[in-house]
Input
Amino acid sequence: MQSVPRSPVSRLLCLAAPALVLAVSLAELPATLLNIVYVALGLGLVIFFHELGHFAVAKWCDVHVERFSIGFGPILWARKWGETEYALSAVPFGGYVKMLGQDDMDPSQLTSDEIAQDPRSYSAKPVWQRIAIISAGVTMNILTAVLFFAFAFGIGVTVPKPVAGVAVTGGPAWRAGLRAGDRIDEINGRPAHSFLDIIRGVALSNGMISLRGEHVDGEPFDVEFEPEKGTRREIGLGWSQAPEVAELEDGKSPLMPGTAAAAATPPLEPGDRIAAVNGTPITSYATLIDQLARRRDETVTLDVRRGGGHGEKADRIEIKVGPTPARTLGARVEFERIVAVVDGSPADEAKIRPGDRITKIDGEDVGRQIDPLRLPYLFGDKAGQTVELEILRESSGGAPEKRVVTVVPDDRPGWTEQPTGLGVPLSVPSIGIAFHLAPRVLSVTPESPAAKAGLKENDIIKQLSLVLPPGAQPEPMSDGTQIDIPMEETKDGVTLRNYAYAFAMMQQHPQRKVLLTVTDGKKARVVEVTPWSDAANVWYMPTRGVVLDRLDGVLKADSIPAALSLGVENTRNTVVELYLTLRNLLTFQLSIKELRGPMGISEIAYKMADQGFAELLLFLGILSVNLAVLNFLPIPVLDGGHMVFLIWEAVTRRKPSERVIAAATYAGMLFILGLMATVIYLDLFVHKVFRGGGG
Output
């Protein structure tokens, strides 16, 4: 933001706007005096270096600097050395360099002939020197950002490892054959040091995405594909979890109420590391999910390591965790169509295509005889066997074409790739297809919850809602509000179904009541349903109801050149990310609610400090880049606005008029005040900083 100009509001914005790109939730822990000192010194350093850039170049250009202040408002301490007064002011969110002939609160100084007659005034200096003075703060912030990043990576920064935890079903990465446990070594020819490099590489790329790495089974891969283009470029890949029970903020339990994990004996605790399942070693999240899926109908014994930090020996504990029966409504719905096929999968080799509809499997009708929700298990249990499929394929201008194909499923258990959000289809990992379910009721099991609620054949389910009973404890990472899931939505002109996602959410929230909005084509009604596990036809889910921690590693440079290289790379990436963020804000692809003000930034800085000194340095590097980029936007009052006037003067050989400068300055000030009020409001009432709602 503006540095040479002394606007207190523009100084405050320097710390308000930088968090445009910081919408990350971080663990909030009790305050410590040391962390508060770190934050105060760190934020002060970012401002100090910015102002020092202006000050040093102004001195080099022989400009009379009247005051150098950290903070603004009432002066708490001041000392004069030579001709310059050095001050510490009451409001720490900003700073300024006051020069003769340059004052935002008095724009007439820039055009004053009387002041310009003083050879040491700012306005008397050649345009190139004034440009150097104005740009010096930004330049200093970029340089210090490189150093902040370099020092952080020299110490070692905790980052998510470049390992896939979920490939969103039907997404670009899933179609390319990526799955949980795959390690990504390169993206677009550049090393992937952490999963953040993958996210950044996708966002900043143009055209195709290339990934190189190693599958969870040890096979190398080298794939190239086109990302999805919506509000941002994405490939549908999420970072991996670790086989370790999460430690959540505010001491919340990582065990989902009503699940098998919550009833484990002895109880699971935060920080427990799962070393084996029924004696099979667990080396990753992928192997954990695989083993739980293969033993979905069993009570498993978890070999857990507890404690052991700071050189202490970990305790070894055996914990029994029961199976998770699937909670169903007792109504079968319609298999609609295949929407995606994995490249090189058994389905791809059988020439099954998106748009196909599977009507029969080994002669049995899909929908009435075979529950489509159980297809992931049906194919997984037939691994290595030949399975005959009857499919219908739409043909242009005629009746659907019936085809019979055979597939040999891979040895991959079902329901290990669950729908992760609205519009995400259901995966059959063993043959590599993703399909949607139409929420039309095909049949109702007698005496089932659906039958008792009055559901009938051909009813259409419009919405499924999950309601927390009065007095029940909200689930981890939930505020307890009602979850409403519409059964269909339209995206880019394509109708997406949400029944599979609703079913998955119903499994994850077993303590919640289920409300269905149903229509028979004439009248809509809302009915309450209590899901059951049909004793005569019970089946099981692989998950047990425990929240796992993120798979992290420490990224540490092994030399000074390596640290500086990482510093330069992260500075460049942060600059580009910020410009993309600003573009998304201006095109309404990013909500203004993602903005943070001075309180929000201080809270984030404190939480980063609480994670470690390296993480605080990383945040200060990001903040420095944000300050540099945002302060150089062409907004009057900011450095970028002054640069516009200087470029005008350099091109036209004359200064802008006092009236133009004054009007632009006050317009810029009004904009800054409005933005400042907005971000403070967001801090207090949306993010609820320092009250557990922000960060």
In short: The first helix runs from residue 8 to 16. Residues 107 and 663 are 9 Å apart (CA to CA).
